[in-house]
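Side project, low priority. Logging it here so it doesn't get lost.
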Amino acid sequence: MKTIRSNSRLSWIALSIFVLTACSSIDGSRSVNNPGMSGRTLAMQVCSACHGVTGDSTSPNFPKLNGQQKDYLIAQLDDFKGHVRSDAKAQEHMWGFTRLTTAQISEIADYFSGQAPMRGKSISSPALARGETIYRSGLPDMGVVQCSSCHGPSGEGNGTFPRLAGQHANYLVQQIEVFQQTEQRPRGGPMKVVTHGLKEADTEAVAQYLESMGSPSNAGIH
């Protein structure tokens, strides 16, 4: 019995060493501090771990990047690199990208902006109608301007204003709260003003509506 337990322990240790060695090799091959690595390679080997190979993230914790506005992506990567964007998720996941070159940033932005745009998710919720009202008309009595004035009638974005159509609702809610409650996204001055009057239920409603945009099942809502 003692021999069996000893062998099991040795096997576990050997497996652990193998896993750690493999992870070290992966980390070494995916260095974010190599100026000679193309931005496209970084996108496919490093960014893809959280955002997916084409940027079509399946986790609501990580935003979809496919079809995103190139200028917006460049601006955000610059802010991550310089630790200007300092919300908790930025610090946790993006502050390691301090040595990205200007060329790499442009190439990463080219790669993701050139992918097929994010598709909306089929959502059945009574809040969608309220979300559409907020997006297209705002809430004038609460000082909330319509989102479409900057992000476009179809949520496609424009330049440094990001594409929102099809984005994860949970991620959008988190970022709206960052705009409302902190100064951790300095480029978000206009968003702080726009979202200041949004209540929690309205934030969730407009986020759900945006996630549904572009979905054939929700096409009749728009």
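Brief comment: The two ends are 68 Å apart (CA to CA).
Revisit when time allows.
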